[in-house]
Amino acid sequence: MKFMTTWTLLPGSVKAAATDFLAGVATPEAGVTLLGRWHNCDCSGGFALYETDNPAALHRGAAKWADLLELTTVPVIEDAEAGPNLAAIFGK
């Protein structure tokens, strides 16, 4: 299953977050595949797309950042999966 995580840096955390990122703390946990990660150009946050069947591993990775980032993680589906659902509900 795919999960989208968005993050916002907490006030005053840019230097500590950058240090941790460069030290490899952002490496996904075992069982989690990073499909892509993007950073806002203003250094305020960003988002990442993960794939895993183990949400507990995502939680473990998020816990490493809880003191520096505000994180939101939601399951996501692609157009090919959403389209048939919408067609079934809205009749197109």
Give an overview of the whole structure.
With 92 residues, the chain is an alpha+beta fold. The chain has one domain: Alpha-Beta Plaits (2-Layer Sandwich), CATH 3.30.70. The protein is 33% helix and 33% strand. The protein has a 4-stranded antiparallel beta sheet, with no helix packed on it. A hairpin with a 5-residue loop joins strand 2 (33-39) and strand 3 (45-51). The radius of gyration is 16 Å and the shape is elongated. It starts with a strand and ends with a helix.
Which architecture per CATH? 2-Layer Sandwich
CATH topology: Alpha-Beta Plaits
Helix content: 25-40%
Distance between the termini: 26 Å
What class do helices, strands and sheet pairing give?
alpha+beta
Summarize this, please?
With 92 residues, the chain is of the alpha+beta class.
Secondary-structure topology with pairs:
Layout: E1 2-9, H1 14-22, E2 33-39, E3 45-51, H2 55-63, E4 69-76, H3 79-90
Antiparallel strand pairs: 1-3, 1-4, 2-3
List the keywords.
single chain; alpha+beta; four-stranded antiparallel beta sheet; 3 helices; elongated
